[in-house]
Every structure is written in C-alpha cells, then in structure tokens.
C-alpha cells in the first residue's frame, strides 16, 4: 500500500482524492463569490443608460488625447535580471518549506545540508545581485 | 403637471394583485419547493429524538419548535453556511464594506479633512450605499479594441480569487473555517500567486497604454515582494512544525509568535502592503502618474467589483497576519457566561417567550474567539490603512531594491533566530517554553 496514492497514517489509508477534497471549499468559495456578484454586472447592464455610441467614446483612455498606436505594444522590459532571479529563488523558498515543516521530526544533523544549500544559493544570489546592480547590463 | 397613473382603476389594481399572488404560488410550487427538497437532500441531516431527520420531517420545524434549534445548529455547521455567511463571504464582505467607509473617514481625520459628510445625515454613514447605487447605475464602457471575454471575466476572477483567499482564514475555535487543508499556508501562497496573473491579463485585454504599464508594474511588484513574503513565514513554520493555519493558531495559546519572530512580522507586514498595492507601494494604480494604472478602463460596476475584491483581499491579509503573528482567536475570556436557565429552559424577553432548550446558537468560546479575532484584525487593517495618509509613493527601482536587498536578508535573519531557539531547547517539543 505504499504507492503515492496512499499515505500510511496509522491504519487509515487516505486517498489522494480525500486529501484534495479538503481544498474543495476553496473552489466553492470562489464559485460562490462569482455567482453572487456576477448578477450585479447583469443588473448594471440592464438599468444603466446606454447612449447612442459615438466611436470616440470607445477609444482607449489617454487623458483626452487622440490615441496614436495600439495599447499592446512592445515594451522595454526593464529590471530583467530580477525577473530571472525570481524564477530561481521563488522555487527555492518553497523548497525550504518542505524542510521547515518537518524539522521537528528530523535529526539535528539534517540541518547541515540545508545550511550548505543556503550557502550555495546565497553565493549565487550575491553574484546575481551584483550583476543586477551594474548599469547598462541588460 | 403630470400624474403618475391617469387611468387608475381600483378593480384592475386588485385584479393585478391576484395575478401576482397566483404567479408567485405557481412558481413556488413548481420551482421553489423542488429546489428546497433538492437542497435538503444534499445536506447531512442530524438525528433528533433517535430519529434521522428526513427532508419531510425537516419541514415540520414550523409546527414543532423543539426540532427547530437542532436543525438550525446543523445548518450552521454545513459548508454552505460557512461559505455563504459566517467565516466566509458574508462576514468578509461586511468587514470589507465597513473598511471602505472607515478608511475614508480615517484618512480624512489624519489629513484634517472631514471625509464623507452629507449622505445619511450622521457623518455620511450612508455614503457607501450611495456609491454602490451610483456604480450599479453607471454605464459600463468597454474599449472597442479590448479583448472582450477576458475583460468581462477579469473583475469576477479577481473577486473570486480574493474570496478563495478569505476561505483559508480560521476565525474562531471549533472548526469555524471554510477550508482547512493540511497545507493551508501553501494554499495561501498558491492563491496569492493568481493576483498578478489576473492583473496582467486584464491590463493586456484592455488594450490601453496606462493599463499595460500598470500591469507590468504589478508584475514587478510581485517579483520584488513574493519571495520575502514566503520566506518571512518560514520561521513560524519552523517553530510550529505545521503548515495548517488552525494548528498555528492553537500553538499560540500562551504567547504570540510576534514575540519570537518580530523581524518576520515586520517583513510580512511590508510585503502584505505591497501585495495589496497600497501606499507606499501603490505603483500599479498610481493615480497621479498613470491615470489609474491597470484599473483605467474599468467603469461602473466592473470597477465596483474590483474594489470589493481589493477590500476582501485586505481583510484576508489582515486576518492572515492576525492568525500567524497575533494569536488568532486566542485571548482572555471576556464574553459573559450564558445564564444556565437560558440553556436549559429558554428565554423570556417581555411578552416574547421561547421555551426551547439549548437556545444560544453559538457557544461562549466561539463568540469570545470571534470577538478577539475581529478586534485584532481591525487593528491590523487600521495599521495597513495608516500609511496611505502619511507616506509618499516610492520609485520602482527603490521597490525592487527594498525587496531584494533588504527584506530577503531580514527574513533570513529571523529564520536563523528561529533555528537557534529550536536547537537551543527554548521552543519546540520538550523546550523550556511550552
């Protein structure tokens, strides 16, 4: 019974589906919020005035000026180095939770590899921040 | 001068009344009653007087008052009630709506203004209802080149995700939480991660330069503050050894975690202000720079829904801070004990007598817990509102610098403090402080 579908907690074998069912109220709440407030949009559409449209009314808002180009343009992505760092370190921070939540049951020596891991990550982190601090690199 | 109904006939009026009654009865018996029975079929029924309550017996509560209370108590503990009313949407929306009004008055008092004053005679107390009516009766304008389906769905997604975040917050002892998964904290992080995606989606769909810049700024803000937010809570997880939010609250019966993790608390507080896009981190909707940021093209009720979602999110984050650092529902017992004769015999107020045993629907512990939770959460909400009246907006490179250079380091400091406390035998199982 040691497949990934069963977690051996005592004699009770918990199905993955049962564990997932503890998340179902989250989805219910999401659905209820949408169902309860969606009619407000429909009601608003019903009672609000809809005047004779002029094409100017449906132009994008640009503070009174006539819009020149598309809104969806190519945009210079500044601070790109932070974006790259985020991809790495966001995953790292979640990995640390797997260690942090089970630390009470682990022997104390098990912390050493994590400290080493953090050391490696910090070195990389410092180097990346150093590179990010340099101007004109990206 | 015009009259309202020049061709008024009493007979026609009475006839129309009968028509309405007929249709109401017809629709109720054809649609209402089946719906009631279908709902009753899916709700788990209690056992009363050694007899399982069937949907048929459930409708006898009107004739038999002794059945009423057990049925109501059972309904209070169903997921439906949790989602719709108490720890869920109704409760959170009420607090969120109150926050909108309190924020306006509070900021006005800070800046020596008066705030809303006229609507509702007493200090503008009906301003919120007036605003709601205004928003619902305004035209929804959608730009011609917008991506219409995504643009329509965006506010609903935002509101729904905020409500999903609310569902993970435990409010009172005894299972008063909508969703209680074992990895509640990870579920919180997963839910938070949806907000920037929705922001960028709607910003892209609106086909406007201001919204686009606002969406990109929201993305950068997430990049700067997501990692400190996640890391700042790791010290709590190390000290409690659990990811379940209810268990984290129960571990704070004697002391709050803000005592042992003050740096984490500060980092987390700064990060939630940034996640909520409030001053001084309100770059995505900086109204003095980029019109309204990613909200520029939203009009009427779509804007209203986003506003409601924002304040639901505010409540959820303040509740999360309370749960993680301020002890959640724990606090001295201040709720008065119910008199014994109410529990055993019933209640008598003037002419009204209800001789039903077990009358208080909620026990004293739950009411006390809710009271403390609400007090602490409102305190945190006021602390979150306060910077808006005080601070200017910070620049985007300063934002990234704060997040990456300072907050991550500070979060790690508290992780090592927590490790030290655990390994020095101060906290944790078998520690000096239990």
Secondary-structure topology with pairs:
The complex is a heterodimer of chains A (138) and B (434).
Chain A: E1 6-9, E2 12-15, H1 16-21, H2 24-47, H3 80-101, H4 111-133
Antiparallel strand pairs in A: 1-2
Helix pairs in contact in A: 3-4
Chain B: H1 10-42, E1 47-48, E2 51-52, H2 55-58, H3 65-76, H4 79-84, H5 89-110, H6 127-136, H7 148-166, H8 184-192, H9 194-205, H10 209-232, H11 234-240, H12 245-250, H13 257-260, H14 262-275, H15 301-325, H16 340-344, E3 347-349, E4 352-354, H17 364-385, H18 396-423
Antiparallel strand pairs in B: 1-2, 3-4
Supply the key terms.
heterodimer; A: 138 residues; mainly alpha; Methane Monooxygenase Hydroxylase, Chain G, domain 1; 2 strands; B: mainly alpha; two-stranded antiparallel sheet; two-stranded antiparallel ribbon; 18 helices; 4 strands
How much strand content do the residues of chain A show?
5-15%
* Whole-number total of structural domains of chain B: 1
Helix-strand string of chain B: HEEHHHHHHHHHHHHHHHEEHH
Shape of chain A, please? flat
Describe this structure in words.
The complex is a heterodimer of chains A (138) and B (434). Chain A has helices spanning 16-21, 24-47, 80-101, 111-133, and strands at residues 6-9, 12-15. In chain A, α3 (80-101) packs antiparallel against α4. Chain A has a two-stranded antiparallel ribbon. With 138 residues, chain A is mainly alpha-helical. The model of chain A is unreliable at 1-13 (pLDDT under 50). The longest helix of chain A is centred in the N-terminal third of the chain and has 24 residues, at 24-47. In chain A, β1 and β2 form a beta hairpin. Chain A has a single domain, classed as Methane Monooxygenase Hydroxylase, Chain G, domain 1. Chain B has 434 residues and is mainly alpha-helical. Chain B has one domain (84-423). Chain B has helices spanning 10-42, 55-58, 65-76, 79-84, 89-110, 127-136, 148-166, 184-192, 194-205, 209-232, 234-240, 245-250, 257-260, 262-275, 301-325, 340-344, 364-385, 396-423; strands spanning 47-48, 51-52, 347-349, 352-354. Chain B has a two-stranded antiparallel sheet with strand order 1-2. In chain B, strands 3-4 form a two-stranded antiparallel sheet. In chain B, β3 (347-349) and β4 (352-354) form a beta hairpin. The longest helix of chain B has 33 residues, at 10-42. The termini of chain B are far apart. In chain B, 43% of the residues are buried. The mean pLDDT of chain B is 85. Chains A and B meet through α2, α3 and α4 of A and α4, α7, α8, α10 and α11 of B.
């Amino acid at each position: 019974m040691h497949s990934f579908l069963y977690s051996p907690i005592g004699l009770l074998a918990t199905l993955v589906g049962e564990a997932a069912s503890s998340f179902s109220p989250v989805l219910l709440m999401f659905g209820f919020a949408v169902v309860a407030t969606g009619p407000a949009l429909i009601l608003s559409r019903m009672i609000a005035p809809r005047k004779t449209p002029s094409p100017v009314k449906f132009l994008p808002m640009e503070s009174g000026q006539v819009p020149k180009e598309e809104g969806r343009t190519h945009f210079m992505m500044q601070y790109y180095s932070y974006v790259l760092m985020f991809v790495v370190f966001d995953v790292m921070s979640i990995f640390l939770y797997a260690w942090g939540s089970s630390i009470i049951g682990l022997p104390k020596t098990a912390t050493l590899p994590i400290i080493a891991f953090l050391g490696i990550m910090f070195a990389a982190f410092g180097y990346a921040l150093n590179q990010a601090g340099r101007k004109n690199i990206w | 001068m015009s009259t309202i109904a020049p061709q008024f006939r009493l007979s026609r009026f009475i006839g129309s009344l009968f028509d309405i009654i007929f249709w109401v009865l017809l629709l109720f018996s054809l649609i209402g009653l089946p719906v009631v029975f279908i709902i009753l079929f899916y709700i788990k029924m209690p056992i009363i007087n050694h007899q399982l309550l069937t949907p048929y017996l459930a409708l006898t509560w009107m004739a038999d008052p002794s059945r009423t209370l057990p049925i109501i108590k059972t309904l209070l503990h169903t997921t439906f009630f949790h989602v719709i009313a108490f720890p869920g949407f109704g409760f959170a929306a009420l607090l969120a709506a109150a926050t909108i009004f309190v924020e306006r008055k509070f900021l006005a008092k800070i800046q020596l203004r008066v705030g809303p004053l006229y609507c509702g005679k007493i200090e503008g107390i009906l301003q919120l209802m007036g605003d709601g009516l205004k928003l619902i009766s305004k035209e929804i304008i959608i730009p011609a080149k917008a991506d219409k389906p995504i643009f329509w769905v965006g506010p609903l997604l935002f509101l729904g995700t905020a409500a999903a975040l609310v569902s993970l917050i435990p409010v009172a002892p005894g299972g008063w939480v909508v969703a209680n998964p074992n990895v509640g904290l990870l579920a919180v992080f997963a839910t938070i991660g949806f907000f920037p995606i929705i922001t960028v989606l709607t910003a892209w769909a609106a086909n406007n330069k201001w919204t686009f810049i606002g969406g990109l700024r929201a993305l950068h803000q997430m990049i700067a503050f997501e990692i400190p937010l996640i890391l700042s809570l790791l010290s709590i997880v190390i000290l409690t050894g659990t990811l379940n939010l209810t268990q984290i609250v129960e571990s704070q019966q004697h002391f709050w975690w803000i005592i042992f993790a003050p740096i984490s608390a500060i980092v987390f507080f700064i990060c939630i202000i940034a996640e909520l896009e409030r001053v001084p981190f309100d770059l995505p909707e900086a109204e003095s720079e980029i019109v309204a940021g990613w909200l520029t093209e939203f009009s009427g009720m779509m804007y209203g829904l986003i506003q409601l979602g924002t304040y639901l999110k505010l409540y959820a984050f303040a509740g999360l801070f309370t749960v993680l650092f301020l002890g959640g529902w724990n606090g001295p017992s201040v709720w008065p004990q119910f008199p014994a004769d109410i529990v055993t015999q019933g209640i008598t107020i003037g002419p009204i007598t209800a001789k039903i045993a077990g009358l208080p629907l909620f026990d004293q512990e739950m009411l006390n817990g809710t009271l403390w939770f609400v007090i602490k959460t409102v305190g945190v909400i006021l602390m979150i509102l306060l910077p808006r009246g005080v601070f200017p907006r910070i620049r985007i490179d300063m934002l990234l610098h704060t997040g990456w250079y300072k907050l991550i380091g500070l979060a790690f400091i508290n992780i090592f403090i927590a490790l030290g406390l655990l390994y020095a035998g101060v906290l944790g199982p078998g520690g000096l402080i239990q």
